[in-house]
C-alpha cells in the first residue's frame, strides 16, 4: 500500500542547502532516498518563491457558513423530531441558497 510521507521543514532546508552548494538534483535525491521529481519540484518552488515551506490546503470547501451551522442547531433543538432533510429544506428557505448540509456533531436528533 502506498503511503504519503511529507518532508519536514528541516529536511527541506537540508535539501535546499545541498542544492545551493552546487550539488546535482540526482545526487541529492539519491542521498535522501527520495524521488528525483520531488527534489526537482522543491528546488523549482524555492527558486520561484524564495521559500521551501509546504503549503497547507483546506481540502474541500465548506458547504455551510458558521451562521448556517448555528441555524441548523437551532432548528434541531426547536423541533427535535425533524429529519435532516426537513432541516435542510428549512435552511434553504431561510437562507435562499441551496447547500449540502453536514450534520453538526454536537446535535443529536431523537426519532
UniProtKB/TrEMBL annotation:
GO terms for cellular component: nucleus. SUPFAM superfamilies: Homeodomain-like. InterPro entries: Homeodomain-like_sf, WH-like_DNA-bd_sf. It comes from the Eukaryota. It is found in: Nucleus. Its main location: nucleus. This is Transposable element Tc1 transposase. It comes from Trichonephila clavipes.
